[in-house]
Specification:
Strand content: 15-25%
Low-confidence stretches: 1-11
Largest sheet: 7 strands, antiparallel
Helix content: 10-25%
Order of helices and strands: HEHEHHEEEEE
Number of helices: 4
Length: 191
């Protein structure tokens, strides 16, 4: 079978999405998760925080900034509905039956509203994975799932990014996921 890389993603991604992936290193998949799955995932997150004194309809009980120590949510499989949409993209990007889910979807990156206006962050820019290999035949992909509105961002491993404060009026429920090709020589954890 011919090698599959960025140029053959058209079966899942529209031409403009493919162009965005090539030029920016990321692409957003809107409506990636059904409304019912979004509601279920959001309810699981809110239930998790309710056990810690957070009341969904009372922002005065919401934590500030970034919440961490959310392994229980990850281990529960709360975010697995994202896997349904991403399998097809990953099959085309990394080749069918050639990639590995390192872990279940997560960790969760929950950011709570903060006062102020949004500005481009000036620190903590980073790569989640080292930028290695042929960009037309990636060895890995990084995924970000946004619980509401049920979107997924597929990111190339060589895309620099950073944490951003949440200046909206609602919490941002986001999870991350990494997938690696079986035959890739670059990342120890997949071998």
């Amino acid at each position: 079978a011919p090698a599959v890389g960025w140029p053959t993603l058209l079966a899942v991604l529209r031409a403009e999405q493919l162009d965005q992936l090539r030029s920016r290193g990321w692409v957003r998949l809107t409506e990636a998760v059904s409304e019912s799955d979004v509601a279920i995932m959001a309810e699981r997150v809110w239930s998790f925080f309710a056990e810690r004194g957070v009341v969904r309809d009372d922002p005065s009980t919401w934590p500030a900034g970034l919440s961490s120590k959310l392994q229980d949510l990850r281990q529960s499989g709360a975010f697995n509905p994202f896997a349904n949409i991403t399998a097809g993209v990953l099959d085309q990007l990394l080749q069918p039956d050639c990639w590995t889910d390192i872990e279940s979807w997560g960790p969760a990156l929950i950011t709570w509203p903060q006062p102020g206006s949004w500005e481009i962050p000036h620190k903590n820019w980073h790569f989640d994975l080292p930028a290695r290999g042929d960009p037309d035949h990636p060895a890995a992909a990084r995924l970000f799932g946004f619980i509401s509105p049920g979107e997924v961002v597929v990111m190339a491993p060589w895309t620099m990014h950073t944490f951003s404060m949440n200046v909206s009026s609602q919490p941002r429920f986001m999870v991350t996921h990494t997938v690696l090709r079986h035959d890739q020589p670059f990342y120890e954890s997949a071998r």
